[in-house]
Write a structure and sequence with these properties.
With 128 residues, this protein is mainly beta. It has helices spanning 10-13, 89-94; strands spanning 2-3, 17-20, 26-28, 43-46, 52-55, 58-64, 70-78, 85-88, 98-102, 105-109, 113-115, 118-121, 124-127. The protein has a single domain, classed as Beta Barrel (Cathepsin D, subunit A, domain 1), CATH 2.40.70. This is Retrovirus-related Pol polyprotein from transposon TNT 1-94-like beta-barrel domain-containing protein.
């Protein structure tokens, strides 16, 4: 299951993260979003349509949360050709996050709650 929304404009899209239950890893195509990047990590990622994209690194991204706080997303693949940012549901669950969808709200929790704004467009979900 992929949760995403209609793309308004490219600048706005850079800040959005799509929660994907089928993604094996978090992925981002914007180099400037990485706080750290190990460019020695290379490989390919297979997409749902059976096409492949090149991985050009892996490391950490710092995002701003809805409440103004900041949170690291670790072990994110850098894939220059990606137009959107993908959060892997499986990777979040492996790290012990509690993910809840209730009453049209999504919450991702660790020791403290991380509430992410949500948009809905034709049953497709997007996080920012």
């Amino acid at each position: 299951m992929l949760l995403m929304a209609y793309k308004k404009d490219e600048q706005d899209e850079v800040q959005k993260w799509y929660l994907d239950s089928g993604a094996s890893n978090h992925m981002c195509g914007k180099r400037s979003m990485f706080v750290e990047l190990d460019e020695s990590i290379k490989g390919d990622v297979a997409l749902g349509d059976e096409s492949k994209m090149k991985v050009k690194g892996k490391r950490n991204i710092l995002i701003r949360l809805k409440n103004g706080d900041h949170q690291f997303i670790s072990n994110v693949y850098y894939i220059p050709n990606m137009k959107t940012n993908i959060l892997s549901l499986g990777q979040l669950l492996e790290k012990g996050y509690d993910i809840r969808l209730k009453d049209n709200n999504l919450s991702i929790r660790t020791m403290r709650t991380i509430s992410l704004p949500r948009w809905q467009c034709q049953r497709i979900e997007c996080l920012s």
